[in-house]
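Example 3.
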Amino acid sequence: MTELLERGPDRAPLPAEPAAHDRGRLFRFLRRRPGLVVSVLVIVFVLISAVFPQLFAPGDPNLAVPRERSLPPGPGHWFGTDYLGRDVWTRVVHGTSLSLQATLIAVAVALVVGGLIGLLAGFVGRWVDEGLMRLVDVLLAIPPILLALALIAALGFGTTNVAIAVGVASVAQFARVMRAETLRVRGTVYVEAARAVGTRWWVTLGRHVLPNAAGPVLVLAVLEFGLAILAVSSLSFLGYGAPPPAPEWGSLVAEGRNYLATAWWMCAMPGLTIAATVLAVNRVSKALDGEWGRDR
Amino acid sequence: MSGPYLLRRLAAAVGVLWAAYTVSFAVLYLLADPVATLVARASDGTTLTTAELDALRAQYGLDQPVPVQYLDRLWAALQGDLGTSFVNGQPVTSTIGEALPPTLQIASAGLVLAVLLGAGVALTATYTRSRWLAQALMGLPSLAVSLPVFWVGLMLVQLFSFQLGWLPAVGARGPEALVLPAITLALPTGALIAQVLVKSMSQALAEPYVTTARAKGVGPLAVHLRHALGNAALPALTVLGYVTGNLLAGTVVVETVFTRPGLGRITVSAVADQDIPLVQGVVLFAAFVFVVVNLVVDLLYPLLDPRVAQAVPA
C-alpha cells in the first residue's frame, strides 16, 4: 500500500495520454508486419468496390466491344478483355458485390444459427446439450461442400441459396466453439454472483455470458469469411450461382474456362482476385487470433 | 482390445450413420417438394392431370405420409437399397458403384501425394536450422488453403497442358491423365496434413525423450525420424477421417475441372437435375466413408499407442 502511494506521482502522467501511447504501440505493431498492412488494405479495397464499384471501374461490366475481343492484359485493360470484348477488370470489380453479399449471408447464417445452438447447449446443459451436440456431430460427419450441395438440390439455384447452403454447412463448427466458451463462462465467479443476487436467466445470458463468450466465435467468423469466399466461388464455378450475364467471381472463372488455351487471363485474373482476398482475410484472422494479443 | 470397446465404437458409428440418414432425409424430402422436380422432368411442358401426378407420386412412394416414407426408406436403406434415380430410373447404389472406380483412382493418388507433400514440408520445416527456410515452408500450407481449388486446376492445365504440352488437359485415359487432378486434389489436403504434423512434431521435439536421445549421441536425423516422428504421426492419424472426407468432396470440383467421369461428376449433375435420391445416396456414401475411416483409426489407435490401450476400460 505504501509502495503504491510512493510510486503514485511517477505513474500519474501515464493515464493522462493513453491515446498517444496506444497509437505508438499500434504503429510499432504494424511496422513490423507489412503483410498485415497490405492485407488490411486489400480488404478495404474489396469492401469499397463491393459498395461503390464505379469508383474503381467506371465502365459497364456487361458492355461488349467486339473490336476488343480477347485482348491480353495491358494498358487500358489491365486484366485483359473476354471473348465478347468485355473488360475483365470491370467485371471482377462489379462482381465483388454479388460474391461478397453471398459470403456475408453465409457467415451471418453460420454465426447466428451456430452461435445460438452453442449458446443454448452450453447454457442450458443436460439433455438439450446432449441432443444439440449429437446433431452437430452428424453435421461434422458430412463434408461441408456435400452438405451445401444437398441443400442447393433442395432449395434450388441462385446466389442467396448458395450462400444459405454454405452458411448452414459450417454451423457445426460455430456451435462447438460457442458451446465450449459458454461452458467456460458459465462456471466463472461473476456469473455465479449474478445468479446469487437473483438476476433473471435471460439477463445473465445476454449481459454476462454472451459478451464474454463471443470473442473466439467472432475470430472464427473472420476465418470463416475466407472459407466462405472459397466455398461460394466454388459453387458458383460449378454453375449453381447467379445466372450467366451477372458477374460473380466463381462464374467469371467458369466463363473463361472454355478459352483457357488462348486467353488464360480470363480465368487467371478473377481467380487471383479470389486468392488475394482469401489470403488477406486469413492473415487478418491470424493476427486477431493471436499476434495482437501476444504483442501487447 | 476388448469386446465391449469394439461394440461401443460400432454402435456409435451406426448411430452417426442413422443420424446422417435422418438429416439428409429432412433436408431433401421435407425442405423441397420432390414431386415438383419429378413433374418438371416428366411433363416436358405439358400439364399433368391429377391422376398422372398421383401415379407419379405412388411410383416413388411419395404418396405416403412423411413418417411412413421415412421408415420405408430407412428400412430399404438398411437392406442396401437407396431408391432409384429420378433421372435415369437406375438404382442409386449401382449408379454410385459404377462411378466409384475413377474417383477412387484420383482420390487415392491424391491421398498418397498429399501425405508425401504434407509430411515432406512438415519434416523439412521442423528439421532445418535455417529460420528463413522454416518460415517459408510453414507459410506454404496457409497459402495452399487460400487458393480456390478449381482455379489451381485450371492454371495447372494452362501451364502443363497448353503451354508446355506435357500432360493431357482432360479425360481419364492413361496414368498421365491422373497427374494434374491428383496434384490439384492433394494441395489443400497436403496443407492440412502439414499443419497438423508441424504442430505435433514441434511438441514431440520438446519432449524429454528427445533430449535424452540427443544426450546419448543419436544423430539429428535419427532423432527426428526415429524418435520424434513415430510419436508425432499419431495425432496426425486422427485427422485421417476428415482428410478422406475432404478428398471425396474435392473430387466434385476436380472432376469437373478435368472433365473426368466419377462420383464428383454425377454429384454435380444430380444437384443440377435435383435428383433427390441420388444426392442423398452420395451424402450417405460420404458419411459412410467418414464413419468407416474413423472407426478403423479408432480401432488401430490402441495397437499403435499402448498408452491408449491401457486407458480404455476393459
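Chain A touches chain B through 45 residues (CB under 8 Å). The two ends of chain A are 27 Å apart (CA to CA).
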